[in-house]
Amino acid sequence: MATEKNPVNMKSEKASDIHGFGIELNKERLTRIDRMVELYEKRVTSRLDEEYELKTRRSDRIADKVAAFGGSWTFIIIFGCFLVMWVLVNVLPFITNHFDPKPFILLNLILSFIAAFQSPIIMMSQNRQAARDKHESIIDFAINYKAEQEIDDMQRHLHRMEMELAEIKEMLKEREG
């Protein structure tokens, strides 16, 4: 099975060239390309982060932090420990001050209160994240569209060069023959 040279798979080869163009891609050039792509991605990300800081209110950023904490393992572990301690304090017979005996009505009230406030905050944060993701996808689309246009331009240019080269070859054959 013949393998086609692909720039993505060139890291495994010592030195190769871009198929049909004779441009050598060695490890140093691939590393340079990788650094350029990383730098570009960092610049786009930092630009999006700057926009986020400028366009979001303080309350929105607080909501994002609350949502990030509310959806973390830290929150789950801390809240799980809180629930276990609450139940133990109110159930164990050697503790005399049971402030919320079974069926834990106060605990149910606290849980309802947390759910009532935490869920809209998380939804607001998710809406902002969805808007940011949409913005990023629009940027990605624009980049891909521009790259596609440039590739099309290069292909047209190559086809024109091929036609001109064929004409030159034909003219040379006519001169020789």
From TrEMBL:
Ranges that cross the membrane: 66-92, 104-124
Key word tRNA-binding present: no
Signal peptide extent: none
Coiled coil is among the record's keywords: yes
UniProt-listed InterPro entries: DUF1003
Pfam families (alphabetical): DUF1003 (PF06210)
UniProt keyword terms in alphabetical order: Coiled coil, Membrane, Transmembrane, Transmembrane helix
Coiled-coil regions listed in the entry: 144-171
Cross-referenced PANTHER family: INTEGRAL MEMBRANE PROTEIN-RELATED, MEMBRANE PROTEIN
Protein name: DUF1003 domain-containing protein
